[in-house]
Specification:
The chain is of the alpha/beta class. The protein has helices at residues 20-34, 59-90, 125-144, 163-166, 175-186; strands spanning 4-5, 41-44, 102-106, 151-156, 197-199. The protein is built from 5 helices and 5 strands; from the N terminus they run βαβαβαβααβ. The longest helix has 32 residues, at 59-90. Belongs to the short-chain dehydrogenases/reductases (SDR) family.
Amino acid sequence: MDLCHLSGARGTPCPEVTDPSSIQAAAARVTEHLQGAGLNLLINNAGILRPGSLESETPENMSEVYQNNVTGAMMVSQAFLPLLRKASKEKNQKGMSCSKAAIVNMSSKGGSITNPLILDVGHFISYRCSKAALNMLTRCQSLGFAEDEILCVALHPGWVQTDMGYSVGQAPLTVDASVKKILNTLGHLSEMDNGTFVNWEGETIAW
């Protein structure tokens, strides 16, 4: 299978990313579905946003958002790592690619330390901090899984017209437009992009 997008696609169960048993059950289901093959592409897309300014942010929000947006991605990646390693070994090609073995963590330019997206619209402290942490997780994965030739990338999908996107203002990018560009970008990623932060069009974003 070329894609395991953990949102229920192709009959794949959608795990509760804060529940280890749910994640393990999803991994077991996918393993059964693959019938001995490896998994080429894991997209960690689960995420939540809670409003909060520098003055109003709470420890509870910070913990909840971090657990979903960072710890969840880490646990899902750990659970599916054996399948990704298997796919990488099975693929008779040099280098890295999303058709070989890859982890794509859906991040956000809102977590960019250099140039945080729409800071004037809202602080969203817990969300921004979680995405900055997810970027670091991606970087660590890229170094830790390099010998396995598993490509690891953080990807900003754009300010998209989803429930989350609309919650922070008038999002300019449709879901279809974002997905079309993302799929094109994924098809062109290589070992040169390992450990990088890119947007939906494949352009590098400053950390």
